[in-house]
Amino acid sequence: MWGDEDIRYFYFCEDNEVLEDECDKGYYYVNNATVSGCIPGADMNPNCVNLDATAPECEGENLKQPQVCETLTNFYLCPKEGASATELTCTEDKAFANQDGYLGCFTWAEWRKVRDCPQ
C-alpha cells in the first residue's frame, strides 16, 4: 500500500490492478517505519490536520478572509457580520490553508509544503 498526496487516500494492488481507497472520515493514511494504514486525526502530526477548527463567529477579522475547516478541502466564509459562516469546498479537490501569509486553495503538494506536513 502507498499513500496519495491527498492524505485521505491510499492505493494497493490486487490481481495486477491498482485500486484506490479512502480512509473513513476523520482518519488519514500514513505509511512510515512504525505504521501503515488509516489512523485517527488525533494521532496525526498536528501540521497535517485541523482538529481544532470550528465554524467561526462572523465578526471582526473573520469577516475579512476565509477560515480553516476541519475538513481539509473546505473553508468557512462569513457573508456578513452576525451571520452564520458558510462552509465551502475548494475546487479541483485542493486543500485550504491559512498559514504564514498563505491563504487559499492549494494542490496537495503545495499544501503539504505550506503546512510543513511530511509526505
Helix and strand arrangement:
Elements lengths: L1 E2 L5 E6 L2 E6 L4 E5 L4 E5 L26 E2 L5 E4 L8 E4 L5 E5 L2 E5 L1 H8 L4
Protein name: Chitin-binding type-2 domain-containing protein
What does this structure look like?
The protein is mainly β. The protein folds into two domains: 1-44, no CATH class; 48-119, no CATH class. It has one helix and ten strands. It has one helix at residues 108-115; strands at residues 2-3, 9-14, 17-22, 27-31, 36-40, 67-68, 74-77, 86-89, 95-99, 102-106. The strands form four sheets. It has a three-stranded antiparallel sheet with strand order 1-2-3, with no helix packed on it. It has a three-stranded antiparallel sheet with strand order 6-7-8, with no helix packed on it. Strands 4-5 form a two-stranded antiparallel sheet. The model has no long low-confidence stretch (mean pLDDT 93).
